[in-house]
Amino acid sequence: MNTNKPEKPLLDLQNVEKRFALDQGFLETIKMRGGKLIREKREVHAVNNVSLSVERGEALCVVGESGCGKSTVARLIAGLLTPSAGEIHYDGERIDNRSRHDLLPLRKKMQMIFQNPYASLNPRMTIQQALEEPVKYHTPSLTRAEVKDKVAEVMLSVGVDPSWSARYPHEFSGGQRQRIAIARALTVNPEFIIADEPISALDVSIQAQVLNLMLEAKEQRGLTYLFITHDLSVVQHFGTRVAVLYLGSVCELADTATLFENPKHPYTKALLSAVPQLKDDGPSHIRLKGEIPTPINLPLGCPFESRCAYANVRCETERPAAVQQPDGSLVACHAVEEDRLQD
Fold first, then answer.
1. Is residue 165 part of a domain?
2. pLDDT tens digits, residue range 198-241?
């Protein structure tokens, strides 16, 4: 009899929500409705009932159009924001209810690479100072020589010459700065990296270099990634699994190969049809019609209903639950559940 229990995911999000209040003061909440004064609090529903897990050693890509809640999910996981509802577990322990002080030991295990390398490095610090800072903070027992050796080793591993360490960020190109930002994340030997659109601010010629660098670091250091992006061509190259977000909700979650070969949700199909293809037999471009709902007043039913060609009355009134498909993917769509999609 096999008594081995299945390994827990490294990261587990359970029904996570994040709402941002639009009305700050009491007077802003007072509204006139039908000749009467009422109090109404407006909120932006950025993340809505998101459940995700990230297994050790994988690269889970979170994709979707601008404003769908990708970066908010990243900041919730990193502890930069607090969820309005739900739970976040890391390595089997709940972390979303911890104080900043209690999260400090976790900072060494979990690092974040931001979108803009021009803003994420302190312009007043030399590269040496920027890379030494996290090492000194998280491992104060190291001697000065050991810290310098560690920084030099990490700089070499990301293709940055250690002799450049006395320079300031403005002396580097965008690609070099992002390499330095990756080096800064790696200096504390993390096991989990949240990459929030780390290549979107870079030239296309540099993007592949930075992606390959991150993949090499994954293999050499056994890293686990949560990779936020809106570029599906990057996902195909980098991800092991893909979560598709729309208006703060997960509409499809699948292995990368499964998603690209057999997308099921109408929104996923539309996204993939927009990826430029060199082959003539690629899917024809799907043009979405209808209004994009506002995250302030979320639809009662499916968030994609107003733009979906397969929507019916049930889609207007009932929010779809994620249902596992025969190939293992999870899809939140009434039309898929009822087998109403016709290609």
1. no
2. 888 788 888 888 898 899 899 989 999 999 998 888 888 889 99
